[in-house]
Amino acid sequence: MLPGLKVGDFILVNKYEYGLKINRVSKPLIEFNDPDYGEVVVFVPPHKPVPYIKRLIGKPGDSIKSVSYTHLTLPTKA
User: Is the pLDDT of residue 31 over 70?
Assistant: First the structure.
């Protein structure tokens, strides 16, 4: 896995890779691709207006188990 971002790093985001939206809370008008495991995603959570930058570890329907504070059990690829 690649190292994480550090304070002061810049990131260029393609907002149209996964679909075209009118605003950030609506469903996409046109969907192109779904993000894949391990890809970096940027999103704005509803409780805080600051964008989060995270690596995707699960998709809808996946079961992820927290083994400890630092370890997760990720879904297996079929």
Answer: yes
Longest dimension (CA), the chain: 39
Query: Could you please report the per-residue DSSP string of 1-59?
Result: -PPPP-TT------TTSS-B-SSTTSPPSB------TT-EEEE--TT-SSPEEEE----
Percent of the chain whose predicted confidence (pLDDT) is above 70: 82
Query: Which residues have a Cβ under 8 Å from the Cβ of 26 and sit 6 or more positions away?
Result: none
Supply the pTM of this predicted model.
0.61
pLDDT of residue 25: 62
Using CA atoms, how far apart are residues 78 and 69, in angstroms rounded to an integer? 27
